Amino acid sequence: MLPSPRIRSPKGSTSPRAHLSNTDLLCAGFLRNFKLILLVTVCIALARLVVLPTAGPIIQEYSQYTQYSSPSSLSSSSASEDAPTIRLPSGSGRVETKPTKKETDRSQKEPSVVDTPKSKSPDDTHPKDSSKSSSDSNNDDNHPKDPSPTDPKSSDLINDDDNHSEDSSPKTDKSPTEKSSNSNNGEYHPKDPSPKTNASSSSSSISNRTDSKQHKLTKEGLLSYYNASLSPVIPGGVRKMVQVHLIVDITSESGIVEPSSKFLLSAIERSKYLKAVGVTFVRQLPPLFTQEMHPRNPASPLLFLVDWGSLNRDCHRLQLVLEKIREEYSLETNDNNNKSNSTNKSPTSSVSSQLQEAYTLLVDFTGSTRQTKCEYLFQDSYIQDKSRVRLAKRSIVQGRYYNYDTNEMYLGQIVSPLEWHPNGEASPILYSPLILRETFVNAILNVTQGIKVENMNRSIDVGAFWTNGDNSHYSSYRRDITKVVKTLHHSKINSQVLMENEVGLAYTDIKGYVLGNIQAKYVEKLLSCKIVVVTQRDEWEDQYRLMESLASGALVMTDDMLAMPDGLIDKVNVIVYDSPTSLKTLIRYYLHPDNEAERKRIALEGYKLVMGRHRCWHRLEELVFGEPLTNAYQPYKPAPIKEQGSTSVYWMDTDSDWYGQFL
């Protein structure tokens, strides 16, 4: 059979491939070799699984340190860059991730620091249902069981000096030293900064080891490390004058000065134990300006106080600022030495010894839990004693979030205070919640005109003041709580009285609010409320309105917090709710005429605490010395007069508008 003739293309025709583009040819080649590519990919994946360990044990180990057993209790943001790595302090002082069995046995035999038990509250006068729901719900439902006999709510930075609130008369004639001698009169008892003073007691430990296979720090243990009374910036009970050099950044995105910078300087000027030697203003480095307040005395301790939040936690900018200040101090000291030599007097100490012995405190009042590590501060050329470099933070809780589906608030967990420096050379981070601003205190005095807050006529039953209708994803829980206050409006307190509630704006002038200005209408509304409801943000704790509401003399109801400001105790000077349902029950109970005396008593105790414990100089003295000193626990005593230097400090924004003297 003859082969079929070969078919030839007509003359002038082209191959079908000539009509295909390069992209089509590339796709065709990929499809032709797809099996080979898939085989290579599978081989690479199998090789990585064999070489690299799986992440299962790491996830299992980290789950031991979370506040809740359910993985859904952690937000996506907290599980990433802000997730804490809890470490235990061993007996040698180093920070280790996994202690050995010998170290574990030895640490269990060592004495431990004891958290002070909670003061008894009038449970017999509290509603049976609401008291349990408001005080025990989070501990029973959301938290793991703690074998410690101490109530978690009573040991979050609560100590013996909380009992001062039982005495309604102001203590204006006793110093903190005299008060320490009265151990049974319910007054203030200062603590020894050294933790060894409580080492003889072992009923509750800072480090709670419930299982040899699961080592972790409990909430109370972490808060104990944050407590400035156990580890102040200047230890050893130093009570002599400390000279402070304040460093603030006036380069703000909104063109205004941070309120924290203002009340830090106010705290220095009003404290009897602190003196401002200078204020350094940073604006778009390298330019900066230092205003001298008082002459430097080399015999007194020197503290560099840094508004770390205003600097945006920028270590490089801080390094440039400190190097410039060291240069200025060096020139000044050389001039003093030359003058001393010319008059045959003994020269002053060198600037290097002064600065190496200086203390450095970075205070961060922002809502971020980030613990920025600055290696420059721990260099031997800058300082020899690494424990003199400290960090204080407002936000120490992460993983807090609100579940929209179940209407439950997950409180999150305490961030470890022991890992600021990677080598464990730094002392623990200190907790520094927001303070009661003096501008608000002055506004209260202007409205009351000498009338005590407990004697004010209060026509509003329940008030809630924040940005109503705020669509921010940080305010979901706040909106649900606001609905409770609105729903109870004009409901029956009893058969003859209807409830009068108000939900309003605390501040309408946003720029004025950030500046620290106080609106008179907001103050008047607070002074007219019998009860003020306060709610934290969905993802962080602490706000100015908590302290402002307490200072108004109203009964304050706040949602639960892991890091409650020192001295606040449920049913003693504040009421804690854990859900919209419990809030509704508590409001009805405390507005009932039969419970009016109890409501007024708790409100007055809250007023005394905030006025005698949480003002700007109290907070700074607590960080530096371990306890408030100036007018401590004297709520009715006027604020100390500011001691100003040779030059008064004014603040202005980028538009050169003067906002008056610093308050």
UniProtKB/TrEMBL annotation:
Region described as Disordered: spans on this chain: 68-216
Question: Which UniProt keywords are listed?
Answer: Transferase
Low complexity biased stretches: 68-80
Task: Extract the GO molecular function terms from the UniProt entry.
Answer: transferase activity
For bias type Basic and acidic residues, the affected ranges are: 95-109, 117-131, 161-177
Task: Tell me which InterPro entries the record gives.
Answer: YkvP/CgeB_Glyco_trans-like
Q: Where is each Spore protein YkvP/CgeB glycosyl transferase-like domain found?
A: 520-623
Name of the protein in its database record = Glycosyl transferase group 1 protein
Task: Name its species.
Answer: Nitzschia inconspicua
User: The organism's lineage?
Assistant: Eukaryota, Sar, Stramenopiles, Ochrophyta, Bacillariophyta
